[in-house]
Amino acid sequence: MSSKIRTAVIGVGYLGRFHAQKYKSLENSQLVGICDSNQEHGKKISEELGVPFFERAEDLIGKVDAVTVASSTISHHKLCKLMLENGIHVLVEKPMTVTSKESLELCDIAKRKNLKLQVGHIERFNSAFLAAKEKLDKPMFVECHRLAPFKPRSLDVDVVLDVMIHDIDVLLSIVNSKVKSVSAVGVPVLTPYTDIANVRVEFESGAIANLTASRVSMNSIRKFRVFQKDQYLSIDFEKGELSLTTRTGEWKEGTIPLEHNSWSLSKSDAIMEEAKAFLNSIQNNTPVIVPGEDGVRALQLAETILENIQRRQL
After folding, report:
1. Helix 73-85 vs helix 100-113: crossing angle, to nearest 10
2. Cα separation of 37 and 143, whole Å?
3. Same-domain pairing of 154 and 275
4. What digits encode the pLDDT tens for the residues 183-210?
5. Domain with 165 in it
6. What's the rounded Cα separation, in Å, for the pair 261 and 88?
7. Distance between CA 104 and CA 116 in Å, rounded?
8. Using one digit for the tens of pLDDT, what is the confidence trace for 132-173?
9. Which domain CATH number covers 152?
10. Residue 49 and residue 24: Cα distance in Å, rounded?
11. Helix, strand, or coil here: 21?
12. Is the pLDDT of residue 314 over 70?
């Protein structure tokens, strides 16, 4: 492959536009064009970036080596399958697909075609998480709060697939154990789907996680807390802040053997890091950081959570 990878973005809404900007700026990328079902909006973005607009995803075949699929979730499976079947590497925004069955099919195609399939679980590239992960050994209790004001996008799925999926992926990446049980509750508020949800996940290792997600809150909160033997770690994804409390000795009356450390990390451009990693894996033929199989695992747990919520609502 030449030094420049021919790239394109399918779906240039809020996130897709950022993906296109990154591809346009990266030295090893040649942004061939963008594609969007909304022609007026798509042409506006193509003019902004100075690249051609393609009305149909099919028109990209033979012209690109890699694409980002950032269209509506319900279209992910069809578009990713089209690209993969035609020898094109794919970075697909989260959630990977609507169902884990669809995502498994994409993984099979990518494996058969020897193509890269990366899922856009962006928190894996967050500087706060990367710094925290180095300090994690064996998490035993995890608490996540991801709350966001209402935004009229990504409303083709519920809050579990829209918002909580971020923390589901991060959770599964740090707890190396099978899920033992799930207990969840959720309610619709502004949409026909679940807009607020809370879930308790127990793992075979004994680890327990409590996740809360909302897309109808007043303020934006993205906090992740991890408790492990002799340590408590807090990550603020929103502010890029990290704090660590560690036991330094035995407790004695009059002394508290705890050491507190905190860091304010410069917020990295996670989408840029994600795009770089994707293109580098193609050029160097190395594994992607967030493979399709991780997207499958996150979806499988999300499906279990949704089934649990639905049973309670009956």
Report:
1. 20
2. 39
3. no
4. 999 999 988 889 999 999 999 999 999 9
5. 124-268+301-313
6. 45
7. 14
8. 888 888 999 999 999 999 887 667 789 999 999 999 999 999
9. 3.30.360.10
10. 7
11. helix
12. no
